[in-house]
Amino acid sequence: MADPKGFLTTPREEWPRRPAGERVRDWSEVYVPGALLPIVGEQADRCMDCGIPFCHDACPLGNLIPEWNDLVARSDWRVASERLHATNNFPEFTGRLCPAPCEAGCVLAINQPAVTIKNVECAIADKAWEEGFTPPCPPDRLSGRTVAVIGSGPTGLAAAQQLTRAGHTVAVYERDDRIGGLLRYGIPEFKMEKHHLERRIDQMRAEGTKFRTSTTVGRDVAAAELCARYDAVVIATGATAWRELAVPGRELAGIHQAMEYLPLANRVCEGDLESSPLTAAGKHVVIVGGGDTGADCLGTAVRERAASVTQLDIYAQPGSVRDETAEPWPTYPRLYRLSAAHEEARDLRSAPAADADARLFAASTLRFTGDAEGHVRALHLVGVDAGRRPLPGTERSLPADLVLLALGFSGPDLKDGLVEGLGLALEPRGTIARDRGFATNVPGVFAAGDAARGQSLIVWAIAEGRAVAAAVDRHLSGGSTRLPAPVGPYDRPMTA
């Protein structure tokens, strides 16, 4: 540790955001450009270099956090980048998108604000690109073995990069017209500008990874045919089967899934569309679901100039301090957190009916009602207790011209023909079954990421991509691998 007293003398300071009224007028990232590097060295100095760094265990990637904190504090950016990339293929993604379970596991967080690990990570990644510390790493020799990776989200990209660098010939199949999966069309531009994704794809191409876009395996290419053409197949399609809301009025026009809405806004940013056919402009918007996807819809609707936008969360409003009995350190606690989108809605008063920022807590949807043309016009809700039981006398309605369902995902999409075409076994909850080596019931076919784990965080997705790459490399090489496997298929986040 560069400064043994840094955690005592330096308060936590985060990357500042641009004023809400300014940033909602564009789609650029919400942070003040250039404002992170001047503060990140002192923030890294707050790291105590603990004898037992619980931040390692809190992060499924096993990031070497105290090591690169010390290197950043000493301004040794090149070595910091080497140590960061030793465990994480895409730190500029996680540094922007991960909710940072590592910070919840920071020892300093027992009685002080945690080290800004996520900000330090992002600073290292951006500095590495700026200084040219991330050149392509093509393999010294080719193995002669071939691998198909189905899906180009963080799991598929991580698996493909690891396997390419190990010397295998890898082709990534993506059903959309561009590479990136949810990183491309699910994550709004204001959370991560897509040039971060493009330069990683360029790096992977230079290393030898092949990409096949606009190709749905199971429809455009028979799944069995793919298995016959490659020595191994990795399924990393994600959990794209969205959850429904079975209440009266669901059939009304104007009620859409979040992942029908968000990709269109991203396509506007990509230049594919002049405006979204599902734009929130001038509409009263209600988002059902209190998670990150709902917050992404919120920030998007605010930028599209919605007349009002309210987010419903079925859980009660959490407190601002960790409940040490229910969620003791170092688990990730459920706290009241103010995302950039919620901050914007609060400051701009976008949701006049909300309890706090844009959210109505402990609220459950009863039904939708519409006009004579069959278009939704109101959402009727009721307050609920901790057991999600309706509370008498709490029924109310909200004006709603556009309703967005952000209720999460249950597993892979079974309609594309991949699961059926290969005869893959499924778990009772609808995810792809696999053994302790990530192998499915079909020889040579492996499954990783949300398609097998279920909906999870980006750090778990990348960790699974790295781990399945090790399993595939072992399979292809006859029993050994030098690739790291940070997680097993049955590993789970720390909980009380």
From TrEMBL:
InterPro entries: 4Fe4S_Fe-S-bd (IPR017896), DPD_II (IPR028261), FAD/NAD-bd_sf (IPR036188), FAD/NAD-binding_dom (IPR023753), Glut_synth_ssu1 (IPR006005), Glutamate_Synthase (IPR051394), Helical_ferredxn (IPR009051)
Keyword Oxidoreductase carried by entry: yes
Ranges where the 4Fe-4S ferredoxin-type domain occurs: 36-69
Gene3D superfamilies reported for this sequence: Alpha-helical ferredoxin, FAD/NAD(P)-binding domain
The entry's keywords: Amino-acid biosynthesis, Glutamate biosynthesis, Oxidoreductase
PROSITE patterns xrefs: 4FE4S_FER_2
Pfam family, one: Fer4_20
TM region positions: none
Pathway(s) annotated for this protein in UniProt: Amino-acid biosynthesis
Tree of life domain: Bacteria
Annotated NCBIfam families: GOGAT_sm_gam (TIGR01317)
Protein name stated in the entry: Glutamate synthase subunit beta
Source organism of the structure: Streptomyces lancefieldiae
